[in-house]
Specification:
With 88 residues, the chain is mainly beta. The protein binds zinc ion.
Amino acid sequence: MTKKAAKPPKKKTRNKMRTFENGNWDKYAKGDKKTVCPICKTNKPGKVVLIPIVGTQEDGNAQAEQVHLDCLDPWFDKQNRFIYQKLK
Ligand SMILES: [Zn+2]
């Protein structure tokens, strides 16, 4: 019996959580109002993730909010099948 050839590595799927080394706070600023992380309410340097905003989906795209990776502290609600983080 010959050994079965090793399977080629699975094609990497795109990470849906888009992370960036730093936020692009100026790009998303509206007028004089700078955008800030909705959790810590600052735009301090650090890795950010783009979190799609519910209700903004259009043609496979959605508006998104920049959130510091370090600020994320999600919880899993098993009963309702939700992963969430309540913001103050
Ligand atoms: Zn933050």
